[in-house]
Amino acid sequence: MKKVGLIVNPIAGMGGSVGLKGTDNVVEEAVKRGATAKSAFRCIEALYELIDIKDNFEIITASNDMGQAVSKSLGFNTKVIYTSERLTTSSTDTINLARALVEEKVDIIVFVGGDGTARDVCSVVGENVICIGIPAGVKIHSAVYAQNPKKAGMLAKLFLEGKATLIKEVEVLDIDEEEYRKGFVNTKLYGYLNIPFERRLMQSKKSPSPQSEKSSQYEIACAVVNNMENNRYYLIGPGSTTKMVMEHLGLDNTLIGVDLILNKQLVKNDLTELEILHYIENIPTSLIITPTGGQGFLLGRGNQQLSYNVIDKIGKENIIVIATKQKIASLNFEPFLVDTGNQNTDKLLEGYIKVITGLKETVMYKVKS
Questions:
Q1: Rounded to an integer, what distance in angstroms lies between the CA atom of residue 51 and that of residue 173?
Q2: Are 203 and 337 in contact (CB under 8 A)?
Q3: Run of H or E residues at 217
Q4: How far, in whole angstroms, is CA 59 from its chain's centroid?
Q5: Under DSSP, is residue 97 helix (H, G, I), strand (E, B) or coil?
Q6: Mean pLDDT score across all residues of the chain
Q7: What is the distance of C-alpha 27 from the center of its chain?
Q8: CB within 8 A of 352, min separation 6: which ones?
Q9: Which pLDDT belongs to residue 224?
Q10: What SS3 string covers 292-308?
Q11: Sign of the dihedral through C-alpha 290, 242, 237, 295
Q12: Contact 130, 187 (CB under 8 A)
């Protein structure tokens, strides 16, 4: 019987919807703002893909919310090898569990979290054990993560059945969250992990927009501003391309947050999910977003404030996508991706969407969940 190591970071992603840009060292503040834990649900979505082969392997994990609860709820053969001494788990628990899984000689480690979790796993595992990341965090730049939880489960199943045989070494990246909250993005390489590689299931690493795109971003900003309607809200998502829209209007911008404007005037910077839902309840709203560089995610990576509840309220027809031609070319014709946390919303977003690429230039580009 094969052994699957399972690590769940119970607090992963809690800072996203409440505008904290991460969860490191701010769990209590996230809870105060109304954040709820979502990593268990993301884990269930992935493990559900393995239910029909559950008699072929055993899940090796930690007690309670770090894996045991989810595994047992789905009826998997479960062995607990680590118990946290704290009520609220920390990176120390992730590292200790990862170390125990290596000693247990598991066939694969599946972990749920964001870049901080990947970094902790990498510090112990390195390239010694094959891994798959289930995305649940706010910032997910590392290529160890699948495009969404369902695809992580699909990949794990292929590996356990001996159908995913290509192993690839990928980078583990992370940023300083304190600097990130101040609007500075400093990405650092922390090591490498080995994954079973299927391009259609895995995400790419995130890449920044080069300085050479500035003039193209300015043209896009002009096109967006020229077409803005009066008495309509405009939500401005994170990113350097959307930032140029705010700069063109002469408004303060939250580079890694969501801002709201009305009649070309600032309403509020750095909104949470609940604030967005409050504002847009009775006023027509458009959303301006740009895909993540190198990955192509429109939603679900670094902009969890734009939840599926927000998207359902706004409607696909009111989403304005902006991207330079260079950014689109860097995707190598791979579609834009969405991972809102709700499969029905993701499906509704699929198809083709218009992308503003210049002052009088647009393209139609495919969206995939």
A1: 31
A2: yes
A3: helix 214-226
A4: 25
A5: helix
A6: 90
A7: 18
A8: 364, 365, 366, 367
A9: 97
A10: CCCCCEEECCCCCCCCH
A11: positive
A12: no
**Strand stretches in the chain, DSSP E:** 2-8, 57-62, 78-82, 108-113, 131-135, 167-175, 187-196, 233-236, 259-262, 265-268, 285-289, 297-299, 319-322, 336-338, 351-358, 361-368
Whether the predicted pLDDT of 221 surpasses 80: yes
- Token pair in block for residue 341: 């946390």
* d(C-alpha 270, C-alpha 275), whole Å: 10
Half-sphere exposure of 126 (CA within 13 A, CB side): 2
Distance between CA atoms of 227 and 230, rounded to whole angstroms? 10
Let me know: does 66 contact 97? Beta carbons within 8 Å.
Answer: yes
Return all residues near 87 (Cβ < 8 A) that are at least 6 apart.
Answer: none
- List CB contacts of 231: < 8 A, sequence separation 6 or more: 262, 263, 283, 284
**105 phi-psi bin (left φ>0, alpha ψ -120 to 50, beta other):** left
Closest CA to 208 of 242, 175, 185: 185
**Structure tokens belonging to residue 302:** 């670094």
* Residue 263 backbone phi and psi in degrees, to 5: 55, 40
Q: Determine the residue type at 329.
A: A
CB environment 283-305: b (16+ within 10 A), e (fewer): eebbbbbbbbbbbbbbbbbbbbb
Residue 215 has pLDDT above 70, yes or no: yes
Please give the average per-residue pLDDT across 174-178, as a whole number: 70
Q: Which two tokens stand for residue 189?
A: 């390489």
* Separation between Cα atoms, residue 260 and residue 281, nearest integer Å: 14
Q: What is the pTM of this model?
A: 0.79
Model confidence over 322-348: pLDDT tens digits?
A: 999 999 998 888 999 999 989 999 999
Output the six-digit token pair for 80.
């607990």
pLDDT of residue 68: 96
CA 181 to chain centre: 17
